[in-house]
């Protein structure tokens, strides 16, 4: 089951979407005005269906606004099927589009295909505080920009981010980075944390908190 957000100013369209996708076992939240949604709320959804033509704010503007904070698929619902419109939607972070009027089977198939693909990708990728970790490549990105972590710095960030909210002592972090037989000084961890914070602050985030007398934790 996926948690899906559907945004469209036409209540009739939302009723069709909700009925069709809930029969597939998904939970569907319907919203007619995206201006009523706090940005942080977008993070809870596994997929977003987004109408293009809406009063107040159009779907393209919504996508630009939230793409840097959400990692889930965004599928545009649009009656605009000119090539330049499609290119615009995909270039600003949309993953797909469904032309109106659409069939129920097409809607279900497109949504489920993206959810399957997202599930596979999330086996190796996760997002925390806007930082995207690629567990296979051992790389971290912010706003699609590679963060220049050293190998040790990446290991520390991955450890803290995966276990966000959990406090790790310098000794535990040291064992993760260097192993039980490491020959570096424990003060190296303090220096690594200092360098990590400097690199994260360069993109205006600071998720690593010092818990005085105990260690460090990654805060959401």
Give a structural overview.
The chain is an alpha/beta fold. It has two domains: 3-121, Rossmann fold (3-Layer(aba) Sandwich); 126-218, Arc Repressor Mutant, subunit A (Orthogonal Bundle), CATH 1.10.10. It has seven helices and eleven strands. The protein has helices spanning 11-22, 59-66, 83-91, 104-121, 151-162, 170-178, 187-201; strands at residues 3-7, 27-31, 47-51, 74-78, 96-99, 125-128, 131-134, 139-142, 145-146, 208-211, 215-218. The strands form three sheets. A five-stranded parallel sheet has the order 2-1-3-4-5, with helices on both faces. Strands 6-7-8-9 form a four-stranded antiparallel sheet, covered by helices on one side. The longest helix has 18 residues, at 104-121. It comes from Inconstantimicrobium porci.
Strand arrangement in the largest pleated sheet: 2-1-3-4-5
CATH homologous superfamily identity of the largest domain: Response regulator
Major sheet details = 5 strands, parallel
Look up the CATH topology of the largest domain.
Answer: Rossmann fold
Report mean pLDDT, rounded to a whole number: 89
H/E topology pattern: EHEEHEHEHEEEEHHHEE
Q: What fraction, in percent, of the residue positions are helical?
A: 25-40%
Going by CATH, the architecture of the largest domain would be 3-Layer(aba) Sandwich
Report the portion of residues in β strands.
15-25%
C-alpha geometry: elongated
Span between N and C termini?
24 Å
Structural class, please?
alpha/beta
Assembly state (oligomeric): single chain
Uncertain stretches of 5 or more adjacent residues: none
Number of strands: 11
CATH classification, class level of the largest domain? Alpha Beta
The number of distinct helices, counting runs of at least 4 residues, comes to: 7
In total, how many domains does the architecture comprise? 2
Radius of gyration: 21 Å
GO cellular component, one term: protein-DNA complex
Organism: Inconstantimicrobium porci
GO molecular function: phosphorelay response regulator activity; transcription cis-regulatory region binding
Protein name: Stage 0 sporulation protein A homolog
């Amino acid at each position: 089951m996926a948690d899906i957000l559907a945004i469209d100013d036409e209540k009739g369209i939302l009723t069709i979407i909700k009925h069709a996708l809930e029969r597939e076992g998904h939970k569907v939240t319907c919203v007619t005005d995206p201006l009523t949604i706090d940005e942080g709320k977008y993070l809870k959804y596994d997929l977003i269906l987004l109408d293009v033509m809406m009063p107040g704010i159009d779907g393209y503007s919504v996508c630009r606004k939230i793409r840097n904070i959400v990692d889930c698929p965004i599928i545009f619902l649009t009656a605009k099927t000119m090539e330049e419109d499609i290119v615009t939607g995909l270039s600003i972070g949309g993953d797909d589009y469904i032309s109106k009027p659409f069939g129920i089977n097409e809607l279900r198939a497109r949504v489920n295909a993206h959810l399957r693909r997202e599930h596979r990708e999330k086996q190796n990728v996760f997002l925390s505080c806007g930082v995207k970790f690629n567990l296979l490549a051992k790389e971290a990105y912010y706003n699609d920009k590679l963060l220049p972590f050293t190998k040790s710095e990446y290991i520390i960030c991955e450890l803290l981010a995966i276990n966000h909210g959990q406090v790790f002592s310098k000794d535990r972090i040291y064992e993760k980075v260097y192993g039980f037989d490491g020959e570096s000084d424990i003060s190296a961890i303090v220096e690594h944390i200092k360098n990590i914070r400097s690199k994260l602050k360069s993109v205006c985030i600071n998720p690593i908190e010092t818990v005085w007398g105990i260690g460090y934790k990654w805060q959401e």
